[in-house]
Amino acid sequence: MAFRKFLPLFDRVLVERLTAETVTKGGIMLPEKSQGKVLQATVVAVGPGSVNQKGHVQPVSVKVGEKVLLPEYGGTKVILEEKDYFLFRDGDILGKYVN
């Protein structure tokens, strides 16, 4: 629960990437090199939002607990209590999954 002690600033979003599939649907185990980069993540913390030209706060478009689609490259790796998290700007997140 290290992310509870960490609050992103402005329009930053702290996410935890989902783990890569290690076994195919047919039961074949995949080596690490052949596993693709996981582009899905869960939002664990969000900043208050960015300030626009008029001085009003523009809130972040995602909420804690939502699953989002990330770009293949980008983000800043953050290690909190030996666990990897990534910081993205709100505008860099490609979309969110809805139920």
UniProtKB/TrEMBL annotation:
PROSITE patterns documented for this protein: CHAPERONINS_CPN10
Assigned keywords, A-Z: Chaperone, Stress response
UniProt xrefs under CDD domains: cpn10 (cd00320)
Annotated SUPFAM superfamilies: GroES-like
Protein family (similarity comment): Belongs to the GroES chaperonin family.
Quaternary structure (record): Homoheptamer arranged in a ring structure. 2 heptameric Hsp10 rings interact with a Hsp60 tetradecamer in the structure of a back-to-back double heptameric ring to form the symmetrical football complex.
Function: Co-chaperonin implicated in mitochondrial protein import and macromolecular assembly. Together with Hsp60, facilitates the correct folding of imported proteins. May also prevent misfolding and promote the refolding and proper assembly of unfolded polypeptides generated under stress conditions in the mitochondrial matrix. The functional units of these chaperonins consist of heptameric rings of the large subunit Hsp60, which function as a back-to-back double ring.
Protein name: 10 kDa heat shock protein, mitochondrial
Species, as recorded: Characodon lateralis
Organism classification: Eukaryota, Metazoa, Chordata, Craniata, Vertebrata
Gene: HSPE1
